[in-house]
Amino acid sequence: MNLPILNLPKFEFRIIKRNEKLYLFDSFRKKEILLTPEEWVRQNVLEYLVQYKNYPKSWIAVEKEININGLKRRYDALIYNKDLNIQILIEFKAPSVKLNEKVFTQITAYNYLLNAPYLLVSNGIQHYFAQVDLKEKKYSFLKEIPNR
Question: I need a surface site. Which of 24, 28, 102, 132 has the fewest CB within 10 A?
Fold first, then answer.
């Protein structure tokens, strides 16, 4: 697999080839993960948030299960604040996936349960960051991801 070039700084990862497949050591989950295009985006965006936006790794939760209307789903990542309240809900897509209304419908459905005040959607090429008005159930896009 050729790793896609992303619209992010370059980061170093421990990548292992096993049985003709690539695996990446995920420092957030502390285990090897099959390296898919979406996983490549996840790892790069999370490293960007830690190294450039100063979010502590310990505040980031990756791929945890939630229950939405009786269906088991997994969010891609969450960032908590210092008070352990959810701050940012994140949805990752492979670089080949267009970030369209369907993607935003997915993350907002998750957010009805989680009530994050901010949403981040990225396919590694495009990154959208939005502030959520939880009362009005609307979001407005921001120019950039704020520093912690």
Answer: 102
